[in-house]
Amino acid sequence: MAQRGPVCTQSCERTQLAATSRNRRSGGLRGSRAPLALAIAAFAALLIAPAAASAQSNYTLPPTLATNQWYWEISPSASGLAGLPAVTGTYPAPGSANIWDTDMFADSNTNGGMPTGPSPVVQALHAAGKYSICYIEAGAQQAEPDSSNFAVADYQNGSNQTTTEMAGWPGEYWYDTRGFASYVAGDNSTLTGAAVNIAAGMAKRIEDCAIEGQDALEPDDLDGYTNPSQTGAPGGGWGLTQTDAAGYERWLAYTAHSDGLAVFQKNDTANASVDEPIFDGMIIEECNKYQDPCAGSGGDATAYLAAGKPVLNAEYTQDGETTAKFCSADIAAGITGALFDVNLDGATYQPCAPGTTGHSFPPVGPANTVAPAIAGTPAESDTLTASTGTWSGTVPITYTYAWSDGTTGSTDTLSAADVGKSISVTVTAKNSAASVSVTSASVGPVASPPLLGSVPFDTQLPALRGTATQGDSLMVSKGSWSNRPTSYSYQWQLCKSGVCSHISGATKSSYKLGSADVGDTLDAIVTAKNAYGSTTATSTRSAVVATRRSSAHARSTAKRLASKHRKLKHRRHRRSPRHRLHW
Questions:
Q1: Which of 223, 267, 364, 387 is the most exposed place for a label (fewest CB within 10 A)?
Q2: Which among 368, 205, 253 has a CA at the least distance from the CA of 18?
Q3: Cα–Cα distance between 183 and 570 in angstroms, integer?
Q4: What is the pLDDT of residue 12?
């Protein structure tokens, strides 16, 4: 069975914070890329460094095997497994590839609609030992089952719709991502303008990939700043900049990691050096055809290759490419390449020979981008947990911990000797090139234990998360409690005209909204218990539960896929001549 890659937790978050293609859809002026990228890198570091938050979820890193093969199909003839080739097979069949990249809606358990549970496609891929990448549209508005999650003002600038419409693609509009420029990882209050609503809608789309059980995310159309609109207005009609794109990409990486997904940078190679520390791999297109170059000095994927992260490259038959023209170059660079039909409908798949990728680059030592942090209550008998912080550098990176009270390991159970002291932890990151140590901020002083007989009491109320829409699920956090609760229980309530009553059987930390909940609000009661008794705390109320818009489901899957097929068919012609310039 093929490997799917290691599971990444806080202890291996070496770098995580948290278009259709540049080559097929975008043009970009390349001559001044390097100075601008350096400026953006410095700016991004200022935004990232103060962030105390870090993506908490576990996620599966993409495999970095010399035998990697990838299969990419986002325009299948039908949704589900029926539209895809067999997931097992021998080289060069698609089933031989250990990495599969497929469309989220086509993979859905609702036959092309919005996912409500695990995807049969993803389940079949995982059963065959494959690594699954979830393709989503992230940079532009088009007809999708969840289009109602986005406001018109997110993608249309004024009464002239063509101002932000993609040139040559009626009905598809660039998002206004200017408000992501100053995004600080984990802090959505740093978003402004349309970015606030775009983030809310896109977060749900990313969460749907996680609901399907996918391993990673491929967010497309991130380089609107290189594209004029239908009217010729620069930056997708919004005046988008490279800094806007870098901020949006930073938000996508943090959000994907928080939802338990690894994430690939899709094209936008001008931001590769900025994105590499926070992304897990890269997907590029036609770097050989247009001699960008793919690797080496100024290469599209050089930053990722140097860090030992997987790079997946697609070349297209419609541009006259053959495996004889590019596979030797991809193999020499350590890139996993394959030849596809530009429609990405499965008509063509010719992967470069397996077992020969994995060119060796000099290892790069660990570099810390977000300092380690300590979670937990600094009180006697309580346990503190250290995160590694975030790091870049050649993988694998291993981590060791040294606490200021002499404890080693990622956790520290505080004793009476720690009372009154402040506690910090030093994390040492080590790889084949170097060993680097960084110390966290201190917590404390450590408090004495509670008096005997003290029941829990809340220090922060439970909070609801999720969209209040029929068919979606709400989740409630435990909140924060003193006096060390040993268990928690939950009870959801439906609130009608200000009067709340228990919902029978709704006793888990999540609750799926049904038709009986439409028009009302909900809250959740959390009960914290220890040896001395229990205490309850009630969350704030949800928004009024809305009905699922039936129009999102009325459009047939076949129509959506046919539309995508037509779009992809001509994207190769959208490349600007300027895009072939070297820097």
A1: 364
A2: 253
A3: 34
A4: 44
Q: Are 490 and 524 in contact (CB under 8 A)?
A: yes
Cα distance between residue 128 and residue 308, in whole Å: 25
- Range with the poorest average pLDDT among 51-60, 191-200, 349-358: 51-60
Q: Mean pLDDT over residues 477-498, rounded?
A: 92
Q: What is the pLDDT of residue 451?
A: 64
DSSP helix, strand, coil percent of the chain (3-state; round to 5): 25, 25, 50
* Options 3.90.550.10, 2.60.40.2700, 3.30.365.10, 3.40.190.10; CATH of 457-538: 2.60.40.2700
Q: How far apart are the C-alpha atoms of 359 and 330, rounded to whole Å? A: 9
User: Which residues of 404-539 form beta strands (DSSP E)?
Assistant: 411-413, 425-430, 435-439, 457-460, 464-465, 473-476, 480-482, 487-496, 499-502, 510-512, 521-530, 533-538
DSSP state of 314: E
Give, to the nearest 10 degrees, the angle between helix 242-258 and helix 195-212.
40
The amino acid at residue 417 is A
0.70 exceeded by the pTM?
A: no
- Who has greater pLDDT, 283 or 368? 283
pLDDT of residue 499: 94
Specify the pLDDT at position 549: 58
How far, in whole angstroms, is CA 371 from its chain's centroid? Answer: 21
Please check whether residue 102 is in contact with residue 132, taking contact to mean a CB–CB distance below 8 angstroms.
yes
Q: How far is CA 345 from the centre of its chain?
A: 24
Percent of the chain predicted with pLDDT > 90? 66
